[in-house]
Design brief:
This is PTCD2. InterPro entries: PTCD2 (IPR034629). One of its GO terms (molecular function) is RNA binding. One of its GO terms (cellular component) is mitochondrion. The chain is mainly alpha-helical and 198 residues long. The chain folds into two domains: 76 residues, no CATH class; 90 residues. The protein has eleven helices and two strands. Strands 1-2 form a two-stranded parallel sheet. Helix 3 packs parallel to helix 5 and helix 5 packs parallel to helix 7. The longest helix is centred in the first third of the chain and has 16 residues.
């Protein structure tokens, strides 16, 4: 597309970054960064999904500073994937206070059952536990928080990869066939028959 001068759309960036993330090589990381920088130079706003793939790829390539930089530019980091990526960024940076704070706020927040709660991947929580295992006070606190999150249904069995690659269904396209009339209101016959008769 780039060689043929085809303009990239938001979906194209998501697809390109997702491919680079799945390839997970130094070369794909370089391609992802180049595409991202070119988009920012052109003044294009990258979607949260595209940025999440770029952050995850940077983390997989142990480029934590780059992952932090990309994450800081996400406009609305309130998605499940963003929350989990934020925790992984801090774990890989050896900053344990922030993940513990995020988890504590999620577990102890006095939130109504009608308000959307943060969900955490079991895989990400296992990484947190692995990181805090050498600090007895943090292990105890983490186990308590983990129990509360589990009871409130905020622990997902999906891996971080599954959360990133989840594609929500588009409701608009599923509603179109329902609005289409198939029976004539006047003759109560199928439309195809009544049109032929008239």
């Amino acid at each position: 597309m780039k060689n043929q001068g085809v303009k990239f759309t938001k979906d194209t960036y998501v697809l390109a970054f997702a491919i680079c993330y799945k390839l997970n090589s130094p070369e794909s990381f370089k391609i992802c960064n180049t595409l991202r920088e070119e988009a920012l130079i052109k003044g294009e706003v990258l979607s949260r999904r595209a940025s999440c793939f770029a952050v995850a790829l940077a983390l997989n390539q142990n480029q934590v500073a780059k992952a932090m930089s990309i994450f800081s530019q996400i406009m609305n980091p309130d998605s499940i994937a963003c929350t989990n990526l934020n925790i992984v960024i801090h774990i890989q940076s050896n900053m344990l206070e922030t993940p513990m704070e995020i988890l504590t706020n999620a577990a102890e927040g006095n939130v109504s059952r009608f308000v959307k709660r943060n969900m955490f991947s079991e895989e990400v929580l296992a990484k947190v536990r692995e990181k805090v295992k050498d600090v007895p006070a943090l292990v105890t606190k983490f186990d308590e928080i983990y129990g509360k999150l589990h009871i409130s249904g905020q622990v997902s069995t999906y891996s971080l990869d599954a959360l990133l690659c989840y594609t929500p269904r588009d409701k608009k396209f599923h509603m179109l066939p329902l609005n289409r009339k198939t029976i004539s209101q006047r003759t109560l016959q199928p439309l195809s028959k009544s049109l032929l008769a008239e």
